[in-house]
Write a structure and sequence with these properties.
By secondary structure, this protein is α/β, with parallel strands linked by helices. It is built from 12 helices and 9 strands. The protein binds NADP nicotinamide-adenine-dinucleotide phosphate.
């Protein structure tokens, strides 16, 4: 698979499409059993992906442990990204807190360094500048290769980047969620920061394989995000029809077109779809080989601009899962 560079400073070379590992522990209902999850992570690497995304919060450490085990035999050949949450400091310093979380992540991931370390959600209880300073020190000391932030504003990006240059911003981006196109993505381009779209398939919707009849259970976010509300699934059909039309013309699948579209946009964009079945791993990673011509891309953009999108995926809606059976 072709590679891309994330970040001009503290840069990392990654495959054009990575693997989001969250679903192996969290967020999409029942996960495959451990051996199958490890097989699929290793398969993604065999198929040319070297970029794997996890977080300490996915299954409270379960996901990092799984990813660490799966990638141990190829650790030197892969780029591991993980994330920390700092809801409050409990009287400790920022530096001490970040280092504690980092050590615990490294242990679970069976590694002596993290390639890309994100702060999962900026929050007002913790100084962004101090986190950026700490990340700078960790980069100098070789504990992390680069750092990043997730779901941030342009202002937060500029502030953090002025303290320690970011390698990447990881935020939601897909044909169904384009809010960062107006500010954060152009700022990433200007500053030389990579952009890693999460939920690049709109939590799977863009594959066109989910109907309004689908039933979701457990911790599956599709129970609560409004994109999957019955009326919105119906209202969003024109988007799926457009994708299918392009997929048929390009001898590709809808999911591949949705990923090829963002890969075409900018060379600093590296999506990390989540996938837990062999055919989907092959399909999604295969999108790196689906090339849109300039005419196809502008025709797709024009059609997309004429389609209204219904529903979204917000942290507030996802928090409602805690109160459900
Ligand atoms: N920074 C953050 O706050 C944040 C938030 C969310 C996610 N993330 C990261 O981003 C990664 C990707 O996010 P996501 O998992 O929401 O992405 P996504 O790829 O948009 O959605 C994943 C869902 O789509 C389904 N899917 C994927 N490819 C498919 C295909 N070709 N055909 C049919 N269904 C398909 C998956 O099904 P199966 O899994 O059942 O195969 C899964 O249910 C996560 O794994 C995580 O690492 C980060």
């Amino acid at each position: 698979m072709k590679t891309r560079i994330l970040g001009k400073a503290n840069s990392l070379t990654v495959s054009a499409v990575g693997m989001g590992c969250m679903g192996f522990s969290h967020g999409y209902g029942a996960a495959p059993e451990r051996g199958e999850a490890i097989r699929l992570i290793r398969l993604a690497h065999e198929l040319g992906s070297n970029f794997f995304d996890t977080a300490e919060g996915y299954g409270t450490g379960h996901n990092e442990t799984l990813v660490g085990e799966a990638l141990k035999p190829v650790r030197k050949k892969v780029v591991i990204a993980t994330k920390l949450h700092i809801p409050d400091l409990n009287g400790k310093s920022v530096s001490e807190t970040v280092k504690e979380h980092l050590r615990a992540s490294m242990k679970r991931l069976q590694t002596d360094h993290i390639d890309l370390y994100y702060w999962h959600r900026v929050n007002p209880a913790v100084s962004l500048e101090e986190v950026a300073e700490t990340m700078g020190k960790l980069i100098k000391e070789g504990d992390i290769g680069g750092w990043g932030l997730s779901q941030i504003t342009e202002e937060q990006l500029r502030l953090a980047h002025s303290v320690t240059p970011l390698t990447a911003v990881q935020s939601e981006y897909s044909m169904m969620e384009r809010m960062f196109e107006k500010d954060v993505i152009p700022a990433c381009e200007e500053l030389g920061v990579g952009f890693v779209p999460f939920s690049p398939l709109g939590a799977g919707f863009l594959s066109g394989k989910y109907s309004a009849k689908e039933h979701y259970s457990g911790d599956d976010v599709r129970r609560v995000i409004t994109r999957f509300a019955l009326e919105n699934v119906s209202a969003n059909q024109p988007l799926l029809e457009l994708l299918l039309k392009f997929a048929n013309e390009k001898n590709a699948t809808s999911a591949q077109i949705a990923l090829a579209w963002m890969l075409h946009k900018n060379d600093f964009i590296v999506p990390i779809p989540g996938m837990r079945k062999e055919d989907r791993v092959r399909e999604n990673l295969g999108s790196a080989g689906v090339k849109l011509t300039a005419e196809e891309f502008s025709s797709l953009e024009k059609s997309l601009s004429e389609i209204e999108i219904y529903g979204n995926r917000t942290d507030e809606d996802i928090a409602k899962l805690h109160d459900m059976d």
